[in-house]
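Exercise 7. Given the encoded structure of a 397-residue chain, write a plausible sequence.
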């Protein structure tokens, strides 16, 4: 293999490039990104960078000279618009083509937007550094922020906005925040956390309309209530960026469908990160996860597969979120859990464990790092659900 093209210049793509060099690949590597920036880190965009201001030098995943030192050609500010596997080339929006022998698909996800209406006020989303810069300018003390969606990003923005001195109202369609990701019990803990910090979360409710009102916006909710806000943000999920693969033969269904080693339906094409959907034998299901650590590890594994050292990717998913003083760490899978056991619940700490098919499948630990390590091992070792009492007491020792 002489030439590798990587489409998507972010966490998974960068780690694929790094791993190719680490494993001795000496051919050409071209990293193609729709964004103008060199690969940067997204998690700070809703946390410290939103609080203190965006500084590109702090966000960059590698210094600019790293690319030259490692012989990596970057094509920034150009989106791939089509893949032609028969000719082994990727077409870019500027009309040029990048030829490859091996291809890494790492185009991640895009923030979903609300349907736009005439004369609607701006509704922010937060996915890119540009989004972060735009939103940061609007978060001024004393203003009222309305957040649509109480998922992780929405709640992190709520926490940061409170620290910046804004009033915050969150509107959520579920019974509690985070209900789809973590279930009602853990969602209720997060609702209480935000309540203690003065955030109002209106649940079981949708936003019917958002209209301009003075210099701000007026939201009408399905409950009939109206909310006047200076700033509106939608945190209503993401969509995998697969459109450029249409017609290429790369199978996509809510992401790029991968084999266990992250190879795809087209020879010489692998996928990694937020966009990859693969069969994880540990959980006996096809999953796609939008977690930082997954993008790093899959980028590296997909690169190895491309150069002939592929193995099944069986990592235990790991995710974190920081809101106020709560450092939440999550391991495993909570989706489709049939059992949830709350092992600890105080204002400062939370430990909840998820089970399915008679096995320990996931755990949420807030400010409880020792428990996290123990449950991660239990998930990897497929410990029976009936043994969680023993696990918890061992964690407490
Ligand atoms: C605000 C925010 C906070 C987060 N916080 C956390 C956290 O606390 N913990 C955690 O575990 N995870 C967090 N995440 C998730 C984590 O950042 C993602 O899982 C990770 O960025 C995924 O990396 P990726 O490389 O797969 O995709 P992405 O980061 O989505 O990058 C994909 C790249 O591909 C580019 N691209 C898309 N289409 C094309 C195309 N056709 N041609 C060329 N380029 C294209 C995009 O512009 C983008 O630069 C957060 C994400 C956001 C947005």
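Solution.
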């Amino acid at each position: 293999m002489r030439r590798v093209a990587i489409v998507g210049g972010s966490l998974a793509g960068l780690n694929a490039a790094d791993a190719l060099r680490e494993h001795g690949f000496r051919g050409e590597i071209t990293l193609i990104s729709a964004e103008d920036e060199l690969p940067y880190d997204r998690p700070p965009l809703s946390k410290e960078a939103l609080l203190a201001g965006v500084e590109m030098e702090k966000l960059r995943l590698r210094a600019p000279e790293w690319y030259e030192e490692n012989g990596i050609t970057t094509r920034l500010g150009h989106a791939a618009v089509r893949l032609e596997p028969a000719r082994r080339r990727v077409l870019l929006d500027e009309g040029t083509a990048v030829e490859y022998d091996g291809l890494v698909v790492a185009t991640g996800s895009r923030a979903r937007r609300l349907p736009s209406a005439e004369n609607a006020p701006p509704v922010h989303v937060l996915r890119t550094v540009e989004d972060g810069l735009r939103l940061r300018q609007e978060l001024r003390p004393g203003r009222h922020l309305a957040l649509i969606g109480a998922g992780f990003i929405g709640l992190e923005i709520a926490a940061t906005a409170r620290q910046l001195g804004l009033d915050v109202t969150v509107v959520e369609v579920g019974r509690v925040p985070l209900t789809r990701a973590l279930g009602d019990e853990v969602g209720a803990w997060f609702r209480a956390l935000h309540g203690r910090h003065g955030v109002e979360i209106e649940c079981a409710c949708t936003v019917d309309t958002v209209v301009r009102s003075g210099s701000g916006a007026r939201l009408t909710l399905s409950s009939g209530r109206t909310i006047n806000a200076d700033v509106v943000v939608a945190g209503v999920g993401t969509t995998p960026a697969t459109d450029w693969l249409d017609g290429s033969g790369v199978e996509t269904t809510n992401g790029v469908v991968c084999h266990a080693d992250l190879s795809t339906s087209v020879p010489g094409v692998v996928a990694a990160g937020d966009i990859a959907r693969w069969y994880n034998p540990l959980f006996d299901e096809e999953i796609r996860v939008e977690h930082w650590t997954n993008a790093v590890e899959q980028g590296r594994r997909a690169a190895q597969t491309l150069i002939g050292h592929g193995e099944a990717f069986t990592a235990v998913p790991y995710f974190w979120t920081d809101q106020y003083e709560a450092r939440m760490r999550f391991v495993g899978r909570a989706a489709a859990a049939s059992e949830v056991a709350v092992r600890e619940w105080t204002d400062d700490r939370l430990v909840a464990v998820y089970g399915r098919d008679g096995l320990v499948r996931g755990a949420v630990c807030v400010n409880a790092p020792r428990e996290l390590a123990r449950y991660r091992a239990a998930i990897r070792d497929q410990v029976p659900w009936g043994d969680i009492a023993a696990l918890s007491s061992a964690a407490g020792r």
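Remark. The chain has a mean pLDDT of 95. Students should compare their own answers with the one above.
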